């Protein structure tokens, strides 16, 4: 998961354009909503709210306080079955959804964006409370990316073109890009709203119906969006949201015989299970957006201050809980010491605490499991001989906080240089030559993102072709925009999300060939 | 240009007809000046011209009359807005799209006002203006709003050690000259893709119908497009139109109107600065009815195809070719339809046909009707002006029309249907294509092979099969031969508003 880089490249409109874009320019960040009431805690099927078939509920926690926010209906296989029936029904030939103009699908998605914009403060507060996100980040970045992504994808609905093809023979041949059918979508907890909209928007723009399982840690904004789906007026059954756990609801989706496609964002380990379940059941289409151990390479000729800041944000943003985290930082040896010094200085500036409070710049990790895993990896770094420059332990005694941590003198075989940490831990390595760093950067089973900092044109382009990663940023990092495809090489994923490519993951291509009596060019 | 845009057919999702909208009585015309830099200006010459209600022949108001100096002013504003580093050039493409969406929202908000103005100024039935013109206008803005951030260049695997990519850049200052038959819709067809691609615009609405364009100027300002991005200069063709076509600082011109004027525009573009030109011109469109067609459908579509908008459509089905076995029956039913066509006050909800746009058009149509009578076509109904009513013409049907008659060759642009007979497919293909025009064609048949054969054989930019005027914002529109150059609407329109730049960077090495 990824975001716009918060301080290095603010998302505000270009200078001078504010007058033209008055409704787009960012208002001052308001205070989080006081007295937030959680209205929606049930399973959403057929535009209605349902109790779980089993009668079970599960607690949803605030990771900053470890307190229970509310209890949510716990979906399982029986609930997924119910949702699939509704989604299948909504996808029947002749249904309102199948007979709707494509431009109207786009219109509904644009309306959904309008409603999310209307409820921006509520959704940002909820995201901050439930996911431990710094409120201003939730408000400015998560919600901004959500709204923009939705508007972008809305525009595609009536632009998903087939082709007419000059085939051999006396034939008239054309292709249609048709929706796949019922799509299962399993959403992670680090960007609950953005990842929901990336998947939901693409699927709906192409005319599919969906069963969404939000992460069990963070179901609240997804359920709030469900209420907006109904308000917008999507036909019943087009969107169904079943909160629950991976081994139950998630597994039911992945192995369901009547789900035609599954999209998952999460760990590589779980991604493998999903693809396996898809293979064992009905060969449903699979797209995966998984983990990374993304290299960020800083050459001696780079703008050092900019590189330090991008690299820093690249790994510390959202407590390091981003799949694109710049967690292997390779710095050319002539500037290594200077780079480390500045990075440590930058990491020490954090103020930890409740992410809803103003002035707080780092929130908690999502849960105890993640928290303990990060601390374990930090310990391994110390033991394996990396130099701990700052941080290195937990913070406070309530909530899942980890001190911002920087390691220098990291070598490639250490666990912190190989495993995805998903926490606020920066590893700084040293390199000597271009060829050497390319080899080392690619020496991983992951291939999600990479960053390169250099002013040399040839070097920048050479290395951007050489790196095995789905996205390469040059002189920047974390620059995600809805217009650009995103996804991983190797074990970081299958397929792409967003951009034009992302759409094609939600369509089946049909070739129609009609025999004619005589062809003419 | 005529279109139903799916509006009437697709209408409401729940299937319930909405209450009919009502026009605004005694609507005050607020915007009559030249719109430059988001401000209202008087003409440099101090001159004004009158715009009339063709239904009553009364003067609606006077409008500032632009001329070359006003166009120069507008071009200076449009160039400044297009400067490198300007707010417009630096705006995210997604934000350009959002501005177009907001413009669509405001047009939707003011739909009744705009439809009323359009009817006052053009004489078209109010319900047509409301449901067809306005619907198409809104949908066009929304469609191109969605394209703004999807105008993608390519990276190209060229030979040698280079990286090669293309950028699709806006062309610059675009002139647009719009016609009087669908003033707002044609404006949207030009403005929406131009702005979507990041250009700036100097627009001349037709002198007969400047009012909705000027009203739209006020919405452009309200939305918050940066000053100078859209400039609107009302005036006449030989003055404002000529100044735009021959202006050395205008980079592209888009024109919709007659073939005769289209030739002048392209000539002026060549003589001045080789500005890019797109033209959407006249037609003499064949509509071919095979004996196996659904006759009821064919009769109705052919009727609407030629009578819609008082026949003032460049898509008009003005050569109906009917297979001989069904000819007699087709003529009989077509005449019945034409006789029932309600002609009258365009603000009356029952009216299907209003007045022609002006005296000149009115006289030309009556002259062509006379030629038809003289040249031996059989007048089935109509054939003259409505008694004691300004610019109204009776729906007219000619049968036994032959290819050499003037009414079978010249664009009439009036409520006159000409019905010809054919015997074989090969024959009708030849006859249908035997014209300098090539805008649209229609075919009515249930036979798959016949339909596809005609679809590829007909020389026209659009072929409709078992439908007519099925114009959609998603699909390209424009003419073969002398019906035009280039295409409007659809993804294809974007190519007419962008320059492609190839960037090639030499490297030491390459890697696939």
UniProtKB/TrEMBL annotation, chain B:
One of its GO terms (cellular component) is cytoplasm. It is found in: Cytoplasm. InterPro entries: Ald_DH/histidinol_DH, Ald_DH_C, Ald_DH_CS_CYS, Ald_DH_CS_GLU, Ald_DH_N, Aldehyde_DH_dom. It comes from the Eukaryota. Pathway: Cofactor metabolism; retinol metabolism. Its EC number is 1.2.1.36. Keywords: Acetylation, Cytoplasm, Lipid metabolism, NAD, Oxidoreductase. One of its GO terms (biological process) is retinoic acid biosynthetic process. The active site is at 280. Residues 40-503 form the Aldehyde dehydrogenase domain. GO terms for molecular function: NAD+ binding; protein homodimerization activity; retinal dehydrogenase (NAD+) activity; thyroid hormone binding. Catalyzes the NAD-dependent oxidation of aldehyde substrates, such as all-trans-retinal and all-trans-13,14-dihydroretinal, to their corresponding carboxylic acids, all-trans-retinoate and all-trans-13,14-dihydroretinoate, respectively. High specificity for all-trans-retinal as substrate, can also accept acetaldehyde as substrate in vitro but with lower affinity. Required for the biosynthesis of normal levels of retinoate in the embryonic ocular and nasal regions; a critical lipid in the embryonic development of the eye and the nasal region. Homotetramer. This is Retinaldehyde dehydrogenase 3.
